[in-house]
Amino acid sequence: MSNKTNSKAYIPTVFQDIETPEELKCYLDDSMRRLDNTPYLHHYTSVSRVVDMIRSGTWHLGNAKGMNDNLEYKNGDATRWRNLFFSCFMCEDKESIGMWSMYAQPREKGVKISIPKAAVKKWLKTITEILEISTNDYQPTGRRFRLKEYDISLRLSSVAYCNSDSLQGKTNEEKIMWSTAKNIHIKNAVRIPELTGYIKDMAWSYEKEIRIKAEFDNVYGVHRIAIPLTEDLINAMTITASPLFEGSLEDVLKKEIASKIKTEQSMFTHRLNIKTICQECKLKQKYGSKLI
Known about the structure:
The chain has 292 residues and is an alpha+beta fold. It has one domain (15-291). The chain has eleven helices and 15 strands. The chain has helices at 21-29, 31-34, 47-56, 70-75, 78-82, 97-103, 117-126, 231-236, 249-257, 277-280, 282-287; strands at 40-46, 58-62, 84-90, 110-116, 129-133, 140-146, 153-158, 160-162, 176-178, 181-183, 199-201, 209-215, 224-228, 238-241, 262-265. The strands form four sheets. A four-stranded mixed beta sheet has the order 1-4-14-15. The longest helix has 10 residues, at 47-56. The termini are far apart.
């Protein structure tokens, strides 16, 4: 018999010893305290979204229906998805070609936002309300929900990766992975309702994902939300231009938001032999801007 307490306050410390979905949730929700070797969180996106973010003073959290992993959405519980909103980060400091290719689009305008873990932690503690965002024009609707009044949970939560859907043959071992740790006790984790928003297929494990997650009883029909940015968080950001970025990132940011944010070049700048469709277009090469 296990000597673990049944209290919800119990947080396992060894991933391989986790036995229940509730223990796995507690472990993943306790990630910020455990990420000692992760000084920064990274968000891959486009420079236009960075400009919109700074101008509006908000960071948007989307609903699962809009995410690119439809397998996670279909495996999860529909009711729980309706109550969850999140934004995704990578918690590894090495640059990821996969993340550049998947999220920093278009490539010639892609960027990576890097924020110190301590700054993210401090920022989340300052947030007292969320804003409803229209899915038509992505502007605030005017509705605000205070965290305490509406019992809204706002937290950092890691994603674990499972091979339930990709097992090849009966001899393969079903497992859940978090970082390099393995767990074999929880079976078919992707379809356990309580783990909605916590589990993705192993094919996505290169993302090493951690999410800012808001959760509440969504009886209001909200489809998108935002949380207020702080000056401290903006000042703590470093924006890295994608390997194929066209022009000067620093000049773009100065022009669009009149604010000096620290910028960097990718380690792969001028070292990545990939061309966009536009860059490959012979007509563009011949006539240049006359085509526009």
